[in-house]
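Issue 218. Parser rejects a valid record. Input:
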Amino acid sequence: MSYRNVAIIVEWENALLAELERPKEMLRRLQGQAIAFAQREGCRFHLVIAYNPHDVDIAVPQGAVDDCIDEESWPGTVTFMDAGDRHYYALKTHAVAQRDEDLIVFVDSDVVPEEGWLEALLTPFQDPEVQIVGGNTYLDTPDTTGKAFALFWFFKPKRSLPQLSTRRSFFANNLAIRKATFEAHPFPEAQAYRGQCNEMARALIKDGIAIHSAGAAWMSHPAPNGVSHILNRAAAKGFDNVYWNRQRKAGWLKASPIGAVFRLLRTVLQLPSRVVSRNRDLHFGLIGGALGALGGIGYALIVFLSELVSWIAPRFVKRHVSV
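Output the parser choked on:
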């Protein structure tokens, strides 16, 4: 069976921007789902908490694990991995390189798995042809910020999906992949904040590897935490738009201010239909829809301004923005 030994890799970087209760709840749910799945399938789960010691006090994730994971009943091992001065994608890649399990599961420290998530994500690997399975992530909406962002941001609302389908992308916060496949198509090294998973997806598809999606493997993700985080995420997105268009050799136009103008216009023109469509699922009402539309326009403008700055002085954004 493909999942006799599974490494669950949790990056402890996003937890720095989330309330500590979210990573704790994630660990509690991992505990319950891993135990149930292991008892039924006879497999072992090796939990790896990977962290950057320059940013994270090891006592914090250790305390969270002590509070939420019963190591005596956990069906495998629990390890804390010092990943050196690495961040997000590089941190994940380094953690995989240190493991010898055949199957890797990536979970971020700020997401919370829904019931049945682990089973839905791993069951497709009974088919030896399946190489990679992505889950689905939706935005948590406990407050006004979450509701507004859920209407326009890149995480789609939770809805019923096919048990298993194929798609052209995945989220790095909710993913299972065979180690050999990851080693052949790792997250690329890049100066971007995000987007490496999209490049990895391009490489997989180019080599004829299907990206599967498990319809029931849902997780919730928090909205940006405060004004500073919102501004940083938008600024980072603007930088990444310019960076990846340059890396893909998409042509001067797409990476230029003219391309930024077209992207802004496209986003603003598509925003009303996106907000209306999502509001049908989320039921936030007229006022909620208006807040979502205004938020989406404001966010798009910050992305646009960041693109202009990144085109003129890319080092400025990298020097002053962290996410």
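Fixed in the parser; the record now loads. The chain has a mean pLDDT of 95.
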